[in-house]
Amino acid sequence: MKLYIKYMVSIRCKMMVKEALKTMGLHFIVVDLGVVEIMETLSEAQRLELKEILLKGGLELMDDKKAMLIEKIKNVVIETVHYADELIKVNFSDYLSEKLHYDYTYMANLFSEVQGTTIEQYIIAHKVERIKELIIYGELNITEIAHRMNYSSVAHLSSQFKKMTGLSPSHFKQLKDKRRSPIEEL
Question: Is 38:66 a contact under the CB 8 Å cutoff?
């Protein structure tokens, strides 16, 4: 049985969900960002119990199909921007359509309607947070970060970064108090 969980965006979230399932005596096949597959079929009482446990940890068990699709879109963006080892070689809209098996226009319209922002703006917000993270780590220079984040140039990265933060990447690097936002708050 597949379950969809809202706000499940980090390794800590995955660990918390695994622990909740173990506590309830449920056996999981897969625990991934936003999606859990368990061997059992949940009774209504078990579903309510799991819902309560997850809510205590800031997560939400979802029932609505549109809400589930929105979460899937968010999880693909988070997975691609924050955790992917390789850059995707195709247009992101094509990648998203192929991965989720929905028409991109439908997903984009639904996402905008529900979230009040476009998928593109959501991606940019996550890319900027990832860029902040990479700048803070100090392992890569701006040119390497631009390449890693799939920007056409350093100028393009700098322009988007400044538009979102009000700072150039080099100025951000110099600041000590202006730090990253948690993924969950984007």
Answer: no
Q: What does the alpha-carbon distance between residue 117 and residue 97 come to, in Å, rounded to a whole number? A: 18
Rg of the chain's alpha carbons, rounded to an integer?
18
* Tokens 């936003």, located at residue: 34
Residues of the chain with pLDDT under 50: none
Q: Two tokens at 185?
A: 């708050």
Edge-to-edge, what's the strand order for the sheet holding 2-6? 28-32, 35-38, 2-6, 60-61
Bridge partners (DSSP) listed for residue 31: 36
Which phi and psi angles does 37 have, rounded to 5°?
Answer: -120, 125
Comparing CA positions, the residue from 39, 36, 1 lying closest to residue 17 is: 36
For residue 134, the model assigns a pLDDT of 92
